[in-house]
């Protein structure tokens, strides 16, 4: 093996305990100071490979074959204690969800210093001083105070940075980043991404960077490996993978990230009267106001996108419109008639006309009900149909959302994420609605699957004349599907109008900040944005 | 050992076997007792013999026959009590989780009040005041036990009630019973099933204890707790008579617990959807 390679994985094979092959014959090497991007959809084996690089297999999996060499030592040959000596010292891990990875009962500083103290690398005062210094370098304000806080007292972006500090404190040779920015807001993602890049450059460590977002990997990786179903599809220099992919699957991924093609049909010149209208709506929880003075009109066949960072009041707006959260002030009208504030005061026919599709189908579909019941219940309530007639309607709806009729007897846990979201859409359609409120319906899905769902929604709009209120933080989606866009900042309207106009100059500074934060799939984008300096609205 | 494609540990298998055995005894008891359980058929407190396998009791009745007959009384009463207590406790617990904060607080505080008094003491007071009969016994223990079931059911249901599909059902205009029994209950079943086993053990022991104290099943009807009381003094003379019913009580309790332990360990294992949520 060459001295250059700090990490070498040869013919790695990982199996589930039931014999299913999760990773099949994957080999890779990582040179000192190099960043290798691992990319693929969920289930491609990205995280499994990254954990295997530390000689670790998740519960229920085992490393069945191959070699994992760090600096020439095979981790599989040195026993659990030997591996423990490598973890945290030579190779460190940054997980996707910092919130789920920190111990909520320990102060941040104790968790950051744990590894150097356990490995007797530093004394406690040394480790604590180093931790505070690192937190400062990672752009956290007042690091000495922040370090004494508990995980729930800091924001998600700050927590993700604290986790990066935890990983680099032992000066490891290899860093493993497992989707470190996926759970973050688009604006926070950009900041954290820039910091990660800086850490890698400053410490000259090697890194494995896992993501499903090609635009993100384009910013940090020197080389990219594309994975699918536990097998390697393609490995090459970042420019080659992004610019001239050799495999069809890679091309599909690359094309998908190209957000230029709009999917929606243009609206008629005279859209007529609005189906749904909000006038100066205020809403909030307890005493606090989350939405203030929000007004909009939604016409038949129109898609209105609602965008903003987390905490901007997007989901609250969905709850107000459905009546789950009665508004404090203002008025809503459905087809010109006033809409009662709470869902309990609304007639069944009014409830039917506004349907909701949630972000997480795992939470929105009852896992103990078969699809026939999930979809059949709203059908039966609406039409009173039973028996064979109802079965035919269920099969028809499944067909409409692109699922086989045989799925009717299945339960949600037996379906994939994309299929579950299709079921959620079918359930909304069962009520024969006029308006569907989509609350980030694609943000939990892989890109190719998310794209299928968007196309399905557009087709249904076309066929059934549906109106969508589409809540999202992904501006790429907005520009492809939304006729009009409403930009929210801390519950207040920043911009409202035709999508093209909202994102054309002159822009509100906040709109611009959202827009520039969308990662673009070319090298050097991150540097360009960073060069423009902070753009706080 | 493999059964229906699942691995069952030996301890759970032992527990299940003992449970099935005693349930069969309870069902077919009247046909298999060697003597009439209430008839005096021998001398007082004779030891085990070929004639009387477990010996005779304080008035010369066959102990084996009385244990078989007592299985029906003791296990039957405990089972009916637990079913009743679960019907009450689970309904109220789920209702509290979806009925709004006022109702939740009201129910929870009433339950807290009941929880502050030990079940056995409370049952003693009620049964002394009302006089003991089997229906009173069942109702008293079921009502008191349902407060404990309420706590578990509410805790599980509150978590489920916060999921989006409950909002969807509400927006569909579903009434409370549908939300409680079609949306929430099926998702709450796994922890409730193991809780059922545990509560059965407690109720079984309460029935036995109350009978031992003379406030449960009344003589001459055979029941295990009562049998320990009737033959209690015999232990001073080194006679085995009170050991047999006590052993039966211990066996059933341990057997149910072994099965419940296995069920609980199955529930905490992440699998499928439960691991994702």
TrEMBL record, chain A:
One Pfam family, short name: ABC_tran
Domain ABC transporter, residue spans: 7-254, 276-515
Cytoplasm is among the record's keywords: no
Gene3D superfamilies: P-loop containing nucleotide triphosphate hydrolases
Compartment list: Cell inner membrane
PANTHER family in the cross-refs: ATPASE AAA-TYPE CORE DOMAIN-CONTAINING PROTEIN, OLIGOPEPTIDE TRANSPORT ATP-BINDING PROTEIN APPD
Descriptive protein name: Glutathione import ATP-binding protein GsiA
Originating species: Pseudogemmobacter humi
Automatic annotation (TrEMBL), chain B:
Gene Ontology terms describing biological process: transmembrane transport
Highest rank taxon of the organism: Bacteria
Keyword Membrane recorded: yes
Keywords linked to the UniProt accession: Cell membrane, Membrane, Transmembrane, Transmembrane helix, Transport
Membrane topology: Multi-pass membrane protein
GO CC, any one term: plasma membrane
Compartment list: Cell membrane
Transmembrane stretches, start-end: 12-33, 75-99, 119-144, 196-215, 235-260
Residues in ABC transmembrane type-1 domain copies: 71-264
Family to which the UniProt record says this protein belongs: Belongs to the binding-protein-dependent transport system permease family.
PANTHER family (alphabetical): OLIGOPEPTIDE TRANSPORT SYSTEM PERMEASE PROTEIN APPC (PTHR43386), PEPTIDE ABC TRANSPORTER PERMEASE PROTEIN (PTHR43386:SF25)
Protein name: Glutathione transport system permease protein GsiD
Naturally occurring in which organism (per UniProt): Pseudogemmobacter humi
